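Protein chain data
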Amino acid sequence: MREPTEIRLFVDAELPGRIGLTGKQVNYLRNVLRLGVGARFSVFNGRQGAWLAEIIEMTKNGGVAGTTALVRAQTPAPQLVYAFAPLKQARLDYMVEKAAEAGAGHLQPVLTQHCQVRKINRERLRANIIEACEQCGILTVPTIADPVPLTSFLGNVGDHTLVVADEALAGEPIDPVAAIRAAAPPLAVLIGPEGGFSEQERALLAPRAVRVSLGPRVLRADTAAVALLALVEAAHPSVS
């Protein structure tokens, strides 16, 4: 049997206190986990830590739970910014989920010349991010913004050091972990579109970004995202 603290649900309510459960959450607790009134699980809202909760009431359309004890104190929001060119929906769902799991604090879609997708469903992507946080024990839910042009993104990087995965460097004898380790946190990482960056975009990136290769093969954008975030974790374990 799973421990109560292994069952985590995100809630919008202030904590501690009584919590309203949605019909979807009740269905998960009752029909998937086989929990009933009196059973305990963990809740978090992204701001006030994780709390042990006990089911008070469950109906078809919702339920009520009450918090009993603090399980984990709230963790600081990660400073890592993950920027990416939007993809088609299924692969975009995967990408944002993995970015949340890998410790990104803010997700920024960036529009480039070769983007195939120009719009995103933020509500759907936030739901994927929350699910990743529930499954992985992440207390601070990453934020996600509306898409912005590459030039706007570059103008608002601020004090973050920009790290870019560039397929044009494939095969170059560059140690990506060493290059990223030399980049001073906080970091903003950028994955380009399926068609790669244009020459004009590379000219914009060159003077202000640490450009790294992800190996001798050209990777799909969602695969490149996981690879780059893993390199960031290897180079700066405390960043995420």
Notes: The chain has a mean pLDDT of 92. Residues 4-72 form a domain with the Ribosomal Protein L25; Chain P fold (CATH 2.40.240.20). The chain has two domains: 4-72, 81-235. DSSP finds seven helices and twelve strands in the chain.
